[in-house]
Amino acid sequence: MIRKLHLQEMIIGVIALLLLNSCSEKKSISLETLLEEMTDRRSITLFPNPHYTLRQSGSYDRKSVGPDQPGWFANDDYTQFDAIETINGRKEYVLLDATGPGSVVRWWMTFNGKGSYEGVVRVYIDDLAEPVIQDSILKVLSGHLLAGDPLSSSVSPLTDIYRRGHNLYLPIPYSKHCKITYECDSVLINSGRRKPSIYYNICYRTYDAGTMVISFSKEDLTRNTSLIERVNKQLVTPSSGGYSKGNRIVSTGKLKHGSDLEINPVEGNSAISMIGLSLKTNNYGQALRSIVLSITFDGLTTVWVPAGEFFGSGYMRSNSETWNSTADSTGKFSSFWLMPFRESCTVSLVNYGHAEADAELTVETVPYKWQNNSMYFGASWHEYHNINTAGAESTGGTGKHYDLNFVDLEGKGVYAGDAITIFNTAEAWFGEGDEKIFVDDEPFPSSIGTGTEDYYGYAWCRPEIFSHPFIAQPSGKGNFNPGQTINMRYRSLDAIPFNRSISSNIELWHWVNTVVNYSMTSYWYVMPDYSCNTQPSPRAVQNRVPVRRSDIIPSVMEGK
Q1: Measured between alpha carbons, how far is 55 from 519 in angstroms, rounded to an integer?
Q2: Which of 37, 47, 205, 437 has a beta carbon 3.0–4.6 Å from 373's, enabling a disulfide?
Q3: CA-based diameter of the chain, in Å?
Q4: For the stretch 333-353, what's the b/e string if a residue is b when 16 or more beta carbons lie within 10 angstroms of its beta carbon?
Q5: How many CB atoms lie within 10 A of CB 226?
Q6: Do 31-235 and 252-369+377-550 come out as alike in CATH topology?
Q7: 182 in Cβ contact with 95 (< 8 Å)
Q8: Mean pLDDT in runs of 10 for the chain (560 residues)?
Q9: Domain 252-369+377-550: CATH architecture, name and number where available
Q10: Please, which residues have CB within 8 angstroms of residue 81's CB and are 6 or more apart in sequence?
């Protein structure tokens, strides 16, 4: 009997030890782990563990309450707050009030009007009475108070600082609660007026209950100075990513109508770490649209995008350098998305058009251990070709704006970013439209924004070009005038997980009634059992790309 009791105690002790070890190995979230995740390309290929949901708090017009309700396209997306509180005699406007465990992962703002920039922002963590961050708003967001560039930056550097979008990508984790407020004596809100104009969008993660999160503190910044500096340097060096040069395959040839270049990496349990493309052609714009990059992983074709759109160059010569892609005006492109596969992979360039091109396609692969939560990379594209805009009622339009769909995905995965290429035909801003992203069939979008340029990180429709690791405008020629505009947003810590479905959309809200071409590219990672509503369209990529307004809207003389 005594011997049996000892055996039971031993078994209980072993079980307790195993449970203790299991708990000690449970991953905790901190400023350090989030910064490491930001520059580890492998992290986004794995469905998040610990799991989180991503939401956005913003100044969107509160008259927008549902797709089937009046006000869905309401446009007073400024100086709207979650609450107004009096703290120690101060009036503080609440930008975010979130229950943890969680982390702020992307924070964008812009301003207009007397005193709008002159307020004090405060970040309260875990219900502490004193804020962990308190300073002038521009110092906190883009003034390098918390981190250097690009984690703390404003764009475009060519734009007057008071017309820029101000972006903070330094994560702010919290274990219980986070509240962000703005104190600004110039704010006036009554039944007929809101002033000055304060716009904001704050993306934040909420982890599953029980997830261990180490809350942000001022000491974290001091302790992690070298890590923050390293992350900033890595983010502006897109070829970095923790991988040495992998196996490299190059294929060259002349792409005529209907011909292709193809590369088949032979290693299993690998991942594409880089795709390079060089194009020489006499019809550059059309070639960028009609030559399509197609990628098949383990029998699943998950990528089908015109080359120019995939690499962020639209259908024009442009320069950009982001964490995930580079393009230059000589016709050289690179992609650094990590794309894992288990057994086989085929990368193809197919020319559906009649613009011939000399092409060089390069693919590099690195070893990758496929796991239960590994996902395939995907990218989809489609164009709303020659579509009518409603125009605002104040400019003689109907005011009947509508939503454009980036992509609908059914399955389990992570939404990793998107890009638009639009050819505007009017001397008016096309992008008042807000993003609306529905996750897992939610009735109201967990991400709803304040304008197209805000979603892509800049502000005030400004046409000046810029590149940043996660946002870029290689061309803003179509912002105020007829011409082509290209905007990109790549998601890092603000990637959006979905367990069943995601529907990504943005409003087409143009100030005037006209006709435009609006093409949309989406980037995502998915588990193998999925479906996508956007399918390859060889016919669409053969459409002639416009280079001037008359290519879409013929002049009166041409119409006679």
Answers
A1: 26
A2: 47
A3: 107
A4: bbbbbbbbbeeebbbbbbbbb
A5: 8
A6: yes
A7: yes
A8: 39 40 64 97 97 98 96 98 96 97 98 96 96 98 97 98 97 98 96 93 98 96 96 90 75 96 90 97 96 97 98 96 95 97 97 96 96 98 98 97 98 98 98 98 98 98 98 98 98 98 98 98 97 97 96 66
A9: Sandwich (2.60)
A10: 59, 93, 94, 95, 182
Cβ-Cβ contacts under 8 Å for 139 (sequence gap 6 or more): 145
Residue 67 near residue 458, CB atoms below 8 Å: no
Phi, psi of 11 (to 5 degrees): -65, -45
Name the token pair of 156: 């475009």
Query: Amino acid identity of 142?
Result: S
User: For the purposes of burial, counting CB atoms within 10 Å of the CB of 464, is it exposed (0-12), middle (13-18) or buried (19 or more)?
Assistant: middle
Whole-number Å distance between alpha carbons of 445 and 438? 4
Q: Of 374, 383, 479, 465, which is closest to residue 425 (Cα–Cα)? A: 479
d(CA 65, CA 82) in angstroms, rounded, equals 15
> What are the two backbone dihedrals, phi and then psi, of residue 326, each rounded to the nearest 5 degrees?
-135, 150
Q: Which residue is listed with tokens 């997830």?
A: 211
User: Domain 31-235 is of which CATH architecture?
Assistant: Sandwich (2.60)
What are the boundaries of each domain within the chain? 31-235, 252-369+377-550
**Residue 300 neighbours by CB distance under 10 Å:** 15
**What's the pTM?**
0.93
Phi, psi of 142 (to 5 degrees): -130, 5
Please give the pLDDT value at position 191: 83
Q: What angle, rounded to 10 degrees, do the helices at 225-235 and 31-39 form?
A: 20
- Tokens 């209950």, residue? 209
For residue 129, the model assigns a pLDDT of: 94
Residue 27 is predicted with a pLDDT of 79
The single residue listed with the structure tokens 């905790």 is: 28
Token pair for 378 = 């995907």
Distances in Å between the alpha carbon of 203 and those of 95, 308, 518, 523?
Answer: 11, 29, 26, 18
Q: Which two three-digit tokens encode residue 77?
A: 């997306």
Q: What is the DSSP letter of 456?
A: T
CA–CA separation, 5 vs 8, rounded Å?
5
DSSP state for residue 370 in the 8-state scheme: -
Phi and psi, residue 135, nearest 5°? -175, 180
What sign does the CA torsion over 494, 273, 381, 512 have? Answer: positive
Spatial neighbors of 503 by CB under 8 A, at least 6 apart, are 405, 407, 408, 437, 438
The residues pairing with 173 across neighbouring beta strands, listed in sequence order, are: 103
